Amino acid sequence: MAAIRLTNVQKSYGDHPPVIRRVNLDIGQHEFCVFLGPSGCGKSTLLRMIAGLEDLSEGELHIGGRLVNGVPAAARGVAMVFQSYALFPHMTVFDNMAFGLKLAKQPKDVIDSKVREAARILQLDDYLQRFPKALSGGQRQRVAIGRAIVREPGVFLFDEPLSNLDAALRGQTRVEIARLHQRFANASVVYVTHDQVEAMTLADRIVLLHAGADAERFGSVAQSGAPLELYHHPKSRFVAGFIGSPRMNFIDAVVDSIEPGSVTVTLTRSGERLNAYVDGQRLQSGQPVTLGVRPEHLRLDGDGQFIQCTTVLSERLGEHSYIHADHAAGTLIAKAAGDTPIGSGERIAIHVPPSACHLFDADGIALRRSAFEPERAAA
Ligand SMILES: Nc1ncnc2c1ncn2[C@@H]1O[C@H](COP(=O)(O)OP(=O)(O)OP(=O)(O)O)[C@@H](O)[C@H]1O
Ligand SMILES: [Mg+2]
Fold it and tell me: What's the Rg (C-alpha) of the chain?
């Protein structure tokens, strides 16, 4: 049974167009589900509806098989952790964590053992008598997580819990959250972030929400699936552009010819021809398309098809470099080894493996990528 089920959930404020549109979703027991998307796409709104902090305008919400549309937040068996921590400044760490249990009139010894156990898990043992103002941001966020843990919820809800932390602490706390999830075998996690690294590393499943100019799709699910499914098989140009950093390169093209399992296109600005291993059955020659290829899949050497570019900048990150190169279609980014000796203004051939190419039709819908092995196909 799904721990959380959303059926045709919609949310609108007043007469404005919906900010959440027709969301259908089953989140399993112990699943780590991440709501991902650009700012304003409705991630927090969706999470707050599950928490009971926001009403649904339409649709049904079930938690643990129970319809909870009208059930108040406190009776839903969920615990929420906010970006802002929301700790009580006049209470010690212990009292902050114990607060919900005291409200629920739990016996003192039970409260004591639950708080101490949570403090142990979160390495807060030495801080129980401190006040929040004497804690670092990372420690405060751990207290907020501890306050959720002691309630032993069936569902943990996190809204951007790491965004107030510096990069190192963010990485560390991310690992702690992943380990907490492993530890609580029966709890589901719904986690909101706009950071795709958090989403890729933490999620069993990513639910990517639409945003942008397309009013018809705003607030609907662009794609829901395992992180690598979204990475390798994005359903649309929006998903392809959102997942992956630096983002996928996009080049305008028209369909040239359609072969079994592959499509040849002509790049609109340069006239260069490239082959992509996608299923082009529903295409016609002459049709406009967009070719997409990720920076990490472009090659500066090797055989096969290539496009002509001029380097403009090389970002050296140590282990690897990002080569920015001007092509007739615009600036492309290619990932290269860190010691690649390339300066600016050099004329280079960038290799574009057909197996790495994505193709999107004029509506931004992806063509299915061919299933065959790149090596075999190249032979
Ligand atoms: N009370 C409200 N009244 C009207 N519109 C609202 C209200 N609350 C949120 N919205 C709108 O709903 C949309 C979704 O907001 P939400 O806070 O869920 O976005 P988000 O994806 O969490 O963004 P962020 O990443 O910036 O936190 C936004 O366009 C926002 O302006
Ligand atoms: Mg938000």
Answer: 25
What is the domain extent for residue 12?
A: 2-241
Q: How confident is the model at residue 316 (pLDDT cuts 50, 70, 90)?
A: very high
Return the pLDDT at 216. Answer: 74
* pLDDT band at 242; cut points 50, 70, 90: very high
On whether both 10 and 154 belong to a single domain, the answer is: yes
Final residue of a structural domain among 241, 273, 308: 241
Best residue among 9, 41, 164, 198 to mutate for probing ligand 1, ranked by most atoms within 8 Å of CB: 41
Better-scored residue on pLDDT, 377 or 363: 363
The residue whose CA has the least distance to atom 9 of ligand 1 is 45
CA distance 138 to 162: 8
Domain boundary among 241, 270, 303: 241
Question: Domain total for the chain?
Answer: 2
pLDDT tens-digit profile of 247-264? 999 999 999 999 999 999
Pocket of ligand 1 (CB under 6 A): 13, 19, 37, 39-45, 194
Same domain as 261, residue 219: no
Pocket-testing residue among 9, 16, 44, ligand 1, by greatest number of atoms within 8 A of Cβ: 44
- Residues 203 and 267 reside in one and the same domain: no
- CATH code, 18: 3.40.50.300
Pocket test for ligand 1, best of 9, 10, 12, 13 (most atoms within 8 A of CB): 13
Neighbours of ion ligand 2 (CB under 5 A): 44
* 232, two tokens: 């390798």
Q: Give the atom of ligand 1 at the shortest distance from the alpha carbon of 194.
A: 25
Output the six-digit token pair for 203. Answer: 């999620």
Q: Per-residue pLDDT tens for 146-182?
A: 999 998 899 999 999 988 888 888 888 899 899 889 9
Residues 54 and 181 in one domain: yes
Q: Do residues 14 and 163 both lie within one domain?
A: yes
Atom of ligand 1 nearest to the CA of 46: 18
Q: What is the pLDDT of residues 273-308, one digit of tens each?
A: 999 999 999 999 999 999 999 999 999 988 899 999
> For 338-345, which contacts have Cβ atoms below 8 Å and span 24 or more sequence positions?
340/300, 340/314, 342/300, 342/311, 342/314, 343/311, 343/314, 344/311, 344/312, 344/313, 344/314, 345/310, 345/311, 345/312
Please name the residue whose Cα sits nearest to atom 31 of ligand 1: 40
